[in-house]
User: Fold this.
Amino acid sequence: MGDERQFSRTTEKDVTRAILRSFAEELDDYADSDVVTVGAGPSGLMAARELANAGKRVLLIERNNYLGGGFWLGGYLMNKVTVRAPAHHILDDLGVPLKKAQEGLYVADGPHACSKLIASACDAGVRVLNMTQIDDLVVRDGRVSGVVVNWTPVEALPRQITCVDPIALETQVVLDATGHDAVAVAALERRGLIELPGCGTMWVEGSEDAVVAHTGEVFPGLHVCGMSVASVYGLPRMGPTFGAMLMSGWKAACAIADLSCWCCGDEAVPTEEVAHEQLVPAK
Assistant:
C-alpha cells in the first residue's frame, strides 16, 4: 500500500491543462452574464456579493492581480479602516471585529475586513477576471450592453512592438465601481455621451451621504457606485473611511436586482438587534 501522505502523481502538462480548461470553461460561460461589475474595491465587492446572493450571474473585473482596492489599508499606509454608523452593521454581519473609536465611528483591521468581504463575494458565486482592464463599452441602440476588455499588462507594452486586440463580453447591466477614474463612464465621456467632472475636495460628512444618495443608473444599462459616483456628480471625496463604499455598493445591487433594504432608503435603519436579519446573508 502506498503512503497516503504522498502527493498524487501529476505531471506538468496535467497542471497546465487543468488551469487552461477550467479558465476557458468559465470565460465561455460568462461571455454573457447578468451583471458585469468593473472594479473589485469595497463597493464593487459589496454590490457583486448582494447581486449574486439575489440569484444574478455576476462577473467581477479587476485590473490588478489582487482584489480589494484600498480596503486593505486605511490612510497613509496604515492598515486600520474606519466606518461610520450605520455601515458598521455590514462589517459586523461579515464577522469583522470592530472597535468603537467614538460614538458613531468604528475601526477595523483592513486585511481582516477586506479578506472577509472577498471571501463572502466568492462564496456567493461571484466570478472574477483579475489582471483585466476595460478598454471600451458595447453600446447598442442607446444602451450599454457589454464591456470590451484586455489583459492589464498590454497597456504597458509599447504600441510600436505589439498590437493585441481586446475581446467583448455581453451583459444586461454594467456597474462602474472603479473609483475616482470611473473607467466605464469615461468611455462614454470620450464620445460626448455623458459628462464626467471628477470628484471635489475632501469633506467626510458631506461626501458619504451624497455618494449613497446619488448611487444608481447614469446611462441606460450603466450604473455607478462608490467613488465613481463622486466623479460623475462632482461630489466631495471622503478619504480613508469606507462606510459609503459598502452602502453604495449595496444600494446599487438593490437598484439593479429590484431589492429592498434599509441601506437603499426603502426601510428605516435597523436597531443593532434587527440589523443582522435585514442583511442578505452570505451563502
